[in-house]
Amino acid sequence: MNIFRFAGDMTHLASVLVLLLKIHTIKSCAGVSLKTQELYAIVFATRYLDIFTDFISLYNTFMKLVFLGSSFSIVWYMRSHKIVRRSYDKDQDTFRHYFLIVPCLLLAMIINEKFTFREVLWTFSLFLEAVAILPQLVLLQRTRNIDNLTGQYIFLLGAYRAFYIFNWIYRYFTEPHYVHWIPWIAGLLQTLLYGDFFYYYFHSWKNNKKLQLPA
Amino acid sequence: REQPQNHDEL
């Protein structure tokens, strides 16, 4: 494992911890999209089908369990926790899941490295992860006021994606036959979706002002 | 079967 991959995993982990911290300690999920969180739960559930059958390393298995556990517990908090669920911006968070899920599933059935159940679902999880942030970005546009923790959560997610691209570049030059077009293109698209958000994030940070997106 | 190398990523 190289330093970029590790930094990517750690920023990913930090993003989830920041979100759980916000929900668990402040008992609020204001500004957080349940649609995005449910999509992430589906992403991890379909990607880690190999968790008990293919052992890669203790690190991998541990991280998979953390991402599965955290994504499902965030969904549980937002849907079922008696205090947290009251702060959910239900009327603003109207993005339809199936607009993203159905095209990703169809695309994964056409474009994949091998037409098997697990491989198609694994590819589906990559495509879905690429667009899963969209409901969250739409919600941010609508509410406009972004609290620090929500801003940091999205910033850390974007950083995770950026580190993964450096990881792929590194692996391409250091490992023989390391060419994987599907995750690369899906990952690149995903990172580009954060571009706009990054621009405003750094702008507000530089001017020491509260993060606000344009209407 | 052999795991594709990218399946070792999260």
Domains of chain A, number? 1
Q: Report the radius of gyration of chain A as a whole number of Å.
A: 17 Å
Kindly report the average pLDDT value of chain B.
75
**Global morphology of chain B:** elongated
Largest sheet of chain A: none
Task: Name the beta content range of chain A.
Answer: under 5%
- Cα distance, first to last residue of chain A? 42 Å
Briefly note the structural class of the backbone of chain B: little secondary structure
GO molecular function, one term (chain A): ER retention sequence binding
Keywords (chain A): Endoplasmic reticulum, ER-Golgi transport, Membrane, Protein transport, Receptor, Transmembrane, Transmembrane helix, Transport
Subcellular location (chain A): Endoplasmic reticulum membrane
Pfam families (chain A): ER_lumen_recept
Structure description:
The complex is a heterodimer of chains A (215) and B (10). Chain A has helices at 3-26, 34-47, 58-80, 98-110, 117-131, 134-143, 148-174, 181-193, 195-206. Helices cover 70% and strands 0% of the residues of chain A. With 215 residues, chain A is mainly alpha-helical. Chain A has one domain. The mean pLDDT of chain A is 94. Chain B is mostly loops and 10 residues long. The chains are: A mainly alpha (215), B little secondary structure (10). The interface between A and B is medium-sized, with 20 and 8 residues.
Topology readout:
The complex is a heterodimer of chains A (215) and B (10).
Chain A: H1 3-26, H2 34-47, H3 58-80, H4 98-110, H5 117-131, H6 134-143, H7 148-174, H8 181-193, H9 195-206
Helix pairs in contact in A: 1-3, 1-7, 2-3, 2-5, 4-5, 5-8, 7-8, 7-9
Chain B: no helix or strand
